[in-house]
Protein 1
Amino acid sequence: MSTTRLMLLGVVRIFQPAYGYQLRRELLTWNVDQWANINPGSIYTGLRTLAKHGFLEELEEGEGDKPGRTSYRLTADGETEYFSLLRHALWTVDGFQPGQMQAALSFLWSLGRDEVIAALESRIVQLEQHQKAAPFNERQVEKDPGTPDHVVEMLRIAAARDRGELEWTRGFRDRVRAGEYAFAGEPQDWIPSPEAAEQWRTLPPA
């Protein structure tokens, strides 16, 4: 749920105020249904839930409360929640929830470079600790007569993901240190084309 909430708040924050239809279309171009487990049909529901909890403001236009005709923007509480979720996803390693880091990558540019580097270094330490603990976790499973032997393979696949993420995180940290990409307070390294901007100002007919 936290990954879904971060994705919805983050995309609204980029394009606000924006219609539910546009937000859904944008998220699907990010393939969130594949890596974030966000069902396309649940995006409207998620937006309404965030509005109900005070994180989004609904701006009704035209014909009542049709999902595609309602536009959204972040409230002050939504802005706070966005950064809280983003920082949690960035600073916390969870090998069984890889979508959290994928979501964080979508919005890292809204944090300062120094914080991103610090968080990546923290992730490296956490992943190294996971590596050290892995053999002992396997030993515990193998010695427990009440645990099926194949359970150890669940630990091994998680350890393999951790090794791959550790290699990537070290390289990513070095690239960020070297000045690649743009972060908060720096000149933007990408600006949408005028055609793309115009597309966001136009809602298709009902």
Protein 2
Amino acid sequence: MFAKPIPGRTTAAREGDAVVLLIGMRVNHFWAVHQWLPVALSMFRMLRELERDPGRGLLGRVLLTASPRTYYVVQYWESKEKLYAYASSPEMLHHGMWSIVNRKERAGRLRQHVGLWHETYVAPEGSYESIYFDMPEFGLGAASGVVPVEKRGRYAKDRFAHRSGSATPSAP
């Protein structure tokens, strides 16, 4: 939390594709604490579950707020396959939480007090780059580690051109 900045310029050490999940909630009615607080707490429970088992594929995360109503987590994953495996696994919290939401929706018991959303992006190697200047490890750099920017290129075009050799070729 109080990490010291790394002097100079660094870039994320990620090799291969980058999988980014943005997932969050919006409080539609502040007074309905009994509706949105359990949703917020369930996200923290899922993050703890994932942190206890690194083999599930979560590499790192950043908690953010977009407004007093909207809160979200930027998550970095090893692969879309591991993300999907976690989300659909019946023994994991996510599956159980969505089962509750789906049951309430079918029964007409959702009252629109809290909104849920997610967006998932798979960025093939060569389609992302990063730079951190006098920053502690952050974002993709915290999820994958950092290297001096010179290892990948001083300019964004050079970092975009970096290939690790471990990236899987894109299908035509």
Protein 3
Amino acid sequence: MAALSDVVVGPFDLASRIDEALAVQALAFGLTDEEIAVRRHIVYRHMLQPGAWALGAQTGSGRLVGFVYGMPNDRRHWWSTVVEPYLRRADIDHWLDDSFVITELHVHPDFQGRGIGRSLITSITDAVHQPRSILSALDIESPARGLYRRLGYRDLALQVHFPSAPSPYAVMGAPLPLLRGN
């Protein structure tokens, strides 16, 4: 477990605290009630996948202020089937093999900028056996994308369009372990 002043990052039973996690995600990502309901089912399904697990960031009182979860990539998963053609065009679809996918990473807006997101993503990727990690993020310049770049992620595909997502995404990948430093 990593302590960040009054916040501790450690193992987290996402399925039993899904409403708390989705409340953080809704604030961090601007989700509607309808989107939260859809994501609840997706998260439950993901957590049943082999190798899926989560970490949470909690205050001393047990308040959840951030979480991350992921799983080993499987080309048969929906996300991978959407991303594969974009990576194949650049002849880099091998990134989908033997990779750990960061499925979601969110920090409550009141707690952003404290290193919690960095601690969550480095802690989860430090514990996996895959040689690389992949993720998708909104294809805009944002603090999250800046963090991912500082950790060693690079853009693999831009302007990736997921069905039902109004905005395009970037797919990023990094060798593991992630970089440390600023």
